[in-house]
Structures are given as C-alpha cells and as structure tokens.
Design goal:
The complex is a heterodimer of chains A (426) and B (301).
Chain A (H helix, E strand, L loop, with lengths): L2 H5 L7 E8 L6 H11 L5 H13 L15 H6 L6 E6 L3 E7 L7 H8 L4 E7 L6 H12 L4 E7 L8 H17 L5 E5 L23 H7 L13 E2 L2 E3 L11 E5 L10 E5 L3 E9 L13 E6 L10 E4 L5 E12 L10 E6 L2 E14 L6 E2 L10 E14 L10 E5 L6 E7 L1
Parallel strand pairs in A: 1-3, 1-4, 4-5, 5-6
Antiparallel strand pairs in A: 2-3, 7-13, 8-9, 9-12, 10-11, 10-13, 11-12, 14-18, 14-20, 15-16, 15-19, 16-17, 16-18, 19-20
Chain B lengths: L7 H19 L3 E4 L4 H14 L8 E5 L5 H14 L3 E5 H6 L17 H12 L3 E3 L16 E4 L27 E4 L7 H11 L10 E8 L2 E4 L13 E7 L10 E3 L5 H10 L17 H7 L4
Parallel strand pairs in B: 1-2, 1-4, 2-3, 4-6
Antiparallel strand pairs in B: 5-6, 7-8, 7-9, 9-10
The chains are: A alpha+beta (426), B alpha/beta (301).
Chain lengths: 426, 301
C-alpha cells in the first residue's frame, strides 16, 4: 500500500453525491449543515476562529454553527440566506456537494436551481409543527426536478422529548403526498441538528429508531441508477480540428455523454441530417477509451466525413430521440419580469441555441395546495406552470423524466440576456 | 470502480472540461488567467485535455505583480514552450508607472489589490470576452455563491445580487458589448481535490510547493519570505526554515507553511491533516472579515 492510500483511504476512488437542502430560517437548516460540516471535520481552525469572532460580535453565547453557511455580508446583516450557496465536505466514502437553498416561497427559483443538479433532497420538518404547506412545496419541487431520492429530516426532536409518536404522526401526515407527487424513494429520519442526534452519530435518546443516521444514508445510498444509461445521446459541443502536421486530417467531436453507454464500432446517426456512420473511436488525451457513459467528457471520431457542427446530436441509428418544434413543458419562472405569452425568447437546449415563442400557458400550479389554476394564467417570478412553446427549428429531446440533459431547457430574455425560465420537457 | 461508475475526481474533471469547452464555443476571445500557481496549472492541463489534439485555442494571461518567485516565471515559460501554449504578460509595474494606480506604502504594502486594474486594462486592451480562472467555491465564504459563468458589467464589476440563475449544466454566456464573463471550471473542487488530481494525472508543479530552505520571518503568525521589497517591522527578524508554499501568489502576502513535505504523497498527507484553510495563510484576507467580497466586487479574480 502506498503512503497516500494509507493516509486517505479510498480517496482516489470515491463517489460524488450532490444534495440539496430546503427548509425555512427556523427549521434549523443552517444548523444541520453546520453540524454535518463540523462533525465530519470539514471546518478548519481559521474558519472556527472567524465563527467565534462573528458569534461574539452578535452577542451570542455559543458558537453559532449556522453562521458558517451565511456567505455574503449583505445576507449576514439581514440574517437570511438569499441565494444558492454551495458547500463541500468529504468522508472516507464519498465527497459531497451541498446546494444550500433558502426555503421561503419567494425563493422557489433558488430551490429549483439547487435541485437541478442534485441526487438527493433533504427536507427539514420542525417536529413541533409537523408537515406544513412549505414541506409539501419542497417535496413538490424535488419531484418536479426529478431528484431521485428524498430524505425528510424531522428536526428538533429534543424539543418534543424525542417522542416516537410525534415522529410517526409526521410520517403519516406525509404519506398521501408520496403518491400524489410520484416520489418513489422517500425516507424519514428523526434528528436534532442542534444536539447532534442521528446526524453523524446514532442518537442515544431514541432507542426506538432503528434506521440509519443521516450521514450513513448519505454515504451509502445507491446513486448509479440516477443517470440515463439507456438512451444514447451525445450533443456535439465543439469540433476539434488540430490543423497540425502530425494530425493533418484529424477531426473529432467533443462533448459530454448525455445518456447511454457508447462503444466504438457501433452504428450511429447524426441529427438533424440523419446521416449514418460508425463510431470509430472515443478519444481523450490519456488515450482511447473502450467505452463512454455519462457524465464523461470525451471526443468522438466518426468513420465518415460528415458536416457536423455544435448543436448537432450523435445518437444510435435505431433509437432516436423525439424531434420537434412544438414542445410542452413545465416551467419555473426565475425573473421579476413576468413571462409574456406570445413573447419571443432565446432558448438553450443541450449545446444548441435557438429562438422560441411562448405559445400558450396551459395551467399554473399552486405550489402550496398543488392545485391547478386554469383561470389566472399570468406567470410571474417563482411561479410554476405548464406551457407550450414553438422553437425556430427542431430540437432533439427526450422527456425530462427519462433524461435530465436532453429534457431540459433554459429561457433567456432577448433584451437583458438574463436567464428567466427553467423548463422541463414533458 | 465498475458498473459505469466514475470516481469523483473524474466527474469533477468531466465537469471542468465541459465548462472549458463551453467557453471555447460560446465566446469569441477567451483567455485563461495564469498565475503559475497549482490551480492555474491544473486549469491549463484541463484546457489541454479539453481540446486535444488541438493546442489550447486561446492564450493565457499572466498579470505579473513584480513580486513573483523567480521559479514561478521560469516554470511558466517552460510549460508554455513544451505544450505549444501562448501566454500574454502584463505588468502591475507598468500600471503604476502610468499613474493608473498608487502603490501602497508601509510594512504591509501589497500589490494584490492593484493587479485588478492591470487585469481590467488587459481585458480591455485585448477585448477578451471571457476570462477562465481557477477560483473555487471552497476557498472563501464570498465565493460559495459564485456561478460557473460569472457575469461582469462593463466596469468589470461583480454584482452579487444580479447573478444569473444556473441550472443543470446549461450555461448562459450571452452578453452586451463591453461586458465580459469570469468562468470558474474548478468551482466544485476543494484544495484536496486539486492535490489528488495533480497526483492522479502526475502533473508537474513548481518545486516551491515542496519543502526547501528559505529565509523567512513571522508576521502575526504568518510566515512570509524574505524579498527585496519586503520591510521588517520592529521585533521581526529573518531565520532559515524548512518551508513550502501552500499557494503561490504575490510574495508580499503569500504565507509559507513550515513543512518537510518532499513528494506529492507527503503534501496530500499534510493537506489531509491540515488544521487551517489555504487562504488562512494569506495575509490579504486577514484585513477584514469581508475583505474578499470587497475585492471581488471591484473585479478581483
């Protein structure tokens, strides 16, 4: 065993898990994150010093773990988090990326942003309050964004005498929503972020709970089935032409595998033209690969010379995605300026950019009651709706449920260049 | 690993390459900010991988504070020569001579803040529309909310309240004339990831990162190197110690670590056991709790 392996067991073959945390200011979300970072020893001495200084300045008696995750001065002054903040920690088993988002209704767009790349969502429930409107809202967003795993942490168990009954009641309260929201994998853990029960170490106060701690779950939950290994999709990102003596006629297509398992020798088609050829090699600077799968960044070399540019897509000849210009999608609006029905926007889908027009708003979702609103069809900041768009040229897509990469788009305002909408194709 | 699993380092690598290729595709005149530090060396390595066998299709830009370790500059020139890369160098000294900035005085004088002006001038001079940087979100609190594609207005400023939402891996680099982007492909990396990646890919780095004997002095708990432009305070004195750099920046504010780490494995062991962040050794961050946020707003890296 080399010295490195001894020191950092398994570090070179650790997996990455991205998770998002949603909860309101009072749910103890910042405390929970502070606890995960603190107990996994991701906090360094100089950060701890800063934390102590800041806590003292605020006149607090104990070191406030929540202050760890408050980033910008403006937010610290207001005492709230107003944007998605990313945190990192690692255990010997996995490396974690936390997308920490504020949970209030007016921050739906932040929650959606944080959820878009997550494998897992942690939803905090205050044991004293049970399942609230906002719990359902968070669960809905996790389900809308297709986060594969949901963990409901019933927090502040110390304030309800670590009562099993309280915990079970909350579990029951949530169960009707499980089916309604099509959440397949949901787990419940009773915790106290403040005292540390069941966060990293098993609680001594809740003998009745036999499940895993939160950390254990994060370390072991199976995530490989989270990516699409079925539908082979390769959006062309960049055409590589070295124009150097030793690579005179070389040409390859760089991109990140969006779906499926690819092997050289397979028959492929190139969209939009539909020309068929053979995948000759999968190139990287470290040598050719025998296969490629998501989320690898590689370069494809093809057997025939075909005119291919950025925005084209390489797919199997016998298993093409949907191709169309009239698209139905669920959209979350991200901008103060409301969506304009009939308005023209720039659309980005995989590596292509095109123009699109909002044809119709089918219904809006009341994210607190989950009811459809077919009367008021104005879509403003933080609102979620089903819409129909028409694009200036065909796009190659799969339903978002099948493939998050070929099934997602962003909508850009032509005047300000701002990203104003996030769409999930139905 | 099997079952179509990739390790977290390979996943971070794939993400960074995707971002670098987006920059190559979405912008007309990108550049890669190169300081000679390990993060920028990793960035350059990833850029080479992104476009191989093509050479990196845009130049590097080095803002030379004049307070560099000589070894850094020699390393930079050799790296570019062996890989067919291009580097543009602009000097903070020229900005000072032109009267665009006034050099700080006193014992704590540093050119770290001044380089912002030189950088923005260079971006203007070459009409760069995107500057790739090695910044990571784990470095400092103010960076935790930074985007991969960070929009800068036509004064080169960063407005924390007006950043574009970033969803999935769709990056919006659309801009008006005069605006530019800073792009951070290593956003999701930690210091440990960078070292592990250097080890995994066997990337060459300057010897400064390994232990060597150097004349140093201690200022408020931070070890700083002896250099012609550094002045000692009363009761400070030079001594020779076994040290290494944890970051390579401007000598005037780069703290050194007492260390005997002689190989990448040693360094990884040391980082794993470290009790303070790498920026903890940076004197410029100690100025105030929100120091980094202030510099960022003005267009600092």
């Amino acid at each position: 065993m080399s010295k490195t392996e001894e020191a950092v067991p398994g570090y070179l073959d650790m997996e990455l898990l991205r998770f998002t945390t949603a909860g309101s200011v009072d749910d103890g979300k910042s405390t929970l994150i502070g606890r995960l970072l603190y107990d996994s020893k991701a906090i360094f001495e100089d950060q701890m010093e800063q934390l102590e200084m800041a806590s003292v300045r605020r006149g607090e008696e104990q070191v406030n773990l929540a202050l760890l995750t408050d980033g910008l001065r403006a937010e610290r002054e207001q005492g709230i988090t107003i944007d998605v903040a990313y945190r990192y920690f690692a255990t010997p088993r996995r490396k974690f990326i936390i997308a920490d988002t504020p949970g209030h209704v007016q921050y739906t767009r932040n929650m959606v942003t944080g959820a878009s790349t997550a494998n897992l969502a942690i939803i905090l429930v205050d044991a004293r309050n049970g399942v609230l409107e906002q719990t359902i809202r968070h669960a809905y967003i996790a389900s809308l964004l297709g986060i594969p795993h949901t963990v409901i942490c019933v927090n502040k168990m110390d304030l309800v005498d670590y009562s099993e009954e309280v915990f079970e009641k909350i579990r029951e309260q949530f169960s009707p929503f499980k089916e309604r929201l099509h959440i397949s994998d949901v787990r419940f853990i009773p915790i106290s972020a403040l005292k540390g029960d069941n966060v990293v170490d098993p609680s001594e106060n809740m003998d009745w709970y036999t499940g895993t701690t939160l950390m254990e779950l994060l370390e072991t939950i199976y995530i490989r089935s989270d990516v699409d290994l079925v539908n082979r999709r390769f959006p062309v990102q960049y055409v590589i032409r070295p124009q150097r003596q030793e690579f005179h006629d070389y040409r390859s297509y760089a991109g990140r595998v969006a779906g499926g398992i690819w092997k050289p020798g397979e028959k492929v088609a190139v969209l939009p033209g539909g020309q068929e050829t053979v995948l000759e090699a999968i190139d990287t600077m470290n040598g050719q690969l025998e296969m490629a799968f998501p989320p690898q960044s590689v370069a494809f070399r093809l057997a025939d010379e075909i005119d291919i540019s950025r925005g084209d897509m390489i797919v199997p000849a016998d298993h093409k995605p949907n191709i169309g210009q009239e698209i139905d999608l669920m959209v979350c609006w991200l901008n103060e300026k409301p969506m304009v029905t009939g308005g023209k926007y720039v659309i980005r889908h995989t590596t292509s950019e095109l123009r699109g027009i909002i044809r119709e708003v089918v219904f809006k979702v009341n994210i607190n009651t989950l009811e459809r609103d077919e009367e008021d069809l104005s879509v403003g900041l933080n609102e979620i709706a089903k819409i129909r768009i028409k694009t200036s040229k065909p796009i190659f897509y799969d339903p978002y449920k099948q493939n998050h990469i070929t099934g997602s788009i962003i909508i850009i305002d032509e005047g300000t260049n701002n990203t104003v909408g996030a769409g999930m194709i139905i | 690993m099997s079952d179509y699993t990739i390790t977290h380092l390979r996943e971070l690598e794939a993400e960074a390459m995707y971002v670098i290729r987006e920059v190559g595709a979405q912008f007309e005149k990108p550049t890669l900010l190169f300081s000679g530090g390990k993060d920028s060396i990793v960035m350059y390595h990833l850029a080479r991988k992104s476009f191989w066998p093509q050479v990196v299709p845009f130049p590097c830009l080095h803002i030379d504070t004049g307070h560099n370790f000589d070894e850094t500059l020699a390393f930079r020139d050799r790296l570019m020569e062996t890989t067919g890369g291009r580097v543009i160098v602009r000097y903070v000294q020229d900005t000072i001579d032109a009267g665009r900035v006034v050099e700080e005085t006193g014992v704590n004088a540093s050119r770290n803040v001044l380089q912002t002006v030189t950088l923005l001038d260079a971006i203007e001079e070459f009409k760069f529309d995107a500057a790739l940087g090695g910044g990571r979100r784990d470095e400092e609190k103010a960076r935790a909310k930074e985007r991969f594609f960070s929009h800068r207005d036509d004064f080169g400023q960063w407005d924390p309240k007006n950043q574009r939402p970033e969803l999935w891996n769709i990056f919006n680099g659309k801009k008006h004339i005069g605006e530019h982007f800073r792009v951070f492909p290593l956003s999701n990396w930690t210091e440990m990831d960078v070292w592990q990646y250097i080890y995994l890919e066997q990337i060459e780095i300057p010897r400064l990162y390994f232990t060597h004997k150097r004349e140093v002095f201690n200022r408020d708990g931070v070890w700083l190197a002896r250099a012609p432009f550094m002045t000692l305070k009363e009761d400070e004195y030079y001594e020779t110690r076994d040290v290494r750099c944890r970051t390579i920046g401007d000598i005037s504010c780069t703290g050194l670590t007492l260390s005997t780490a002689n190989t990448l494995e040693d360094i990884i062991l040391e980082v794993a056991a470290a009790r303070s962040t790498e920026r903890g050794g940076r004197y410029d961050d100690k100025r105030s709790e929100a120091a980094m946020e202030d510099r960022k707003k003005e267009g600092y890296f």
